[in-house]
Amino acid sequence: MGFRDPLYWLYERRLERKLDSYEIPRHVGVVLDGNRRWAKTSGLARVEQGHQAGAEKIFELLGWCDEVGVQVVTMWLLSTDNLTRPAEELDPLLEIIENTVRRLQAEGWRVNPMGALDLLPDSTARVMKEAGAATSGNSGLIVNVAVGYGGRREIADAVRSLLLAEAAKGTSIEELAERLDLEHIAEHLYTRGQPDPDLLIRTSGEQRLSGFLLWQSAHSEFYFCEVFWPAFRRVDFLRAVRSYGARSRRYGS
Questions:
Q1: What would the pLDDT profile of 157-214 be if each residue is shown by its tens digit?
Q2: Which residues contact 4 (CB under 8 A, 6 or more apart)?
Q3: Which residues are catalytic (predicted)?
Q4: Which of 1, 42, 65, 188: disulfide with 158, CB 3.0–4.6 Å?
């Protein structure tokens, strides 16, 4: 471990102590933004070095979440829009994602793949599905890995899944329309059975969600952090949790 500024350490400890009096979010969603910009500002020769540094940061984040008692973490690693990137940029990124998911599986986290897996290359989709199946019985922190993910696509997939499930039971469109409510759709989302995210964090200074957890974030608290994702520190995470705990949640009112 490298040298740590004593003032930084004291400030981090102060934040930790304050958390004892705050409510801890059960579910934290994170938009891991800024890998490419971090690589450029750090003078790295290749963009994928930024993505690799961002992948390493994921495991630090999960450790921090586990320490404070977060139950579910959703990480947006790749959007459906990103799938249109040139192969020379997309292929190294997908390889990093595959290696990250394998490591998540090896670390014993409960991995829940989410996204349009049918749009992903076969190898990436297979790694995602295998990790989900192999860790489905694990206890502890649930890690939702959003790859090939889009919020609108998730809602469309949920409605499609609902219609197919009801059709298989012989339900007519008219019957479904009469009794359809929000919970019916929620039961077919990628995060079904999980609490909605209490806190959504986006790094890199962008103050938008870009469709991340579009349905589930109706009552979420947002925290936008200026730092690029690979440079995200434990103190930044503690600040986000403190900010959440200090707010009076009004659930949209």
A1: 999 999 999 999 999 999 999 999 999 999 999 999 999 999 999 999 999 999 999 9
A2: none
A3: 33, 82 (proton acceptor)
A4: 188
DSSP symbols for 137-204:
T--S-EEEEEEEE-HHHHHHHHHHHHHHHHHHTT--HHHHHHH--HHHHHTTSTTTTSPPPSEEEE-T
| Element of type H or E holding 223 | strand 221-224
- Cβ-based neighbour number of residue 120 at 10 Å: 22
pLDDT higher than 70, residue 252: no
Residue with tokens 């059975």: 193
Is 109 annotated to bind a ligand? Reply is no
| pLDDT for the residue numbered 6 | 78
One of 5, 20, 33, 157 is an active-site residue; which one? Answer: 33
pLDDT single digits (tens) 85-128: 999 999 999 999 999 999 999 999 999 999 999 999 999 999 99
- Answer for the pair 203, 228: CB distance below 8 angstroms, yes or no: yes
Distance CA(54)–CA(34), nearest Å, equals 9
Could you confirm whether 33 is annotated as catalytic? yes
- Delimit the domains of the chain by residue range: 150-189
CA nearest 59: which of 16, 2, 10, 99?
99
Q: Taking each helix axis from N to C terminus, what angle separates 122-135 and 87-107, rounded to the nearest 10 degrees? A: 10
The sign of the CA dihedral 72, 203, 216, 151 is negative
Which helix (H) or strand (E) segment holds residue 142: the answer is strand 142-149
List 5, 66, 82, 157, catalytic entry: 82
List the structure tokens of 22: 């705050």
219 is in an annotated binding site: no
Exposure of 183 in the CB half-sphere (CA atoms within 13 A): 2
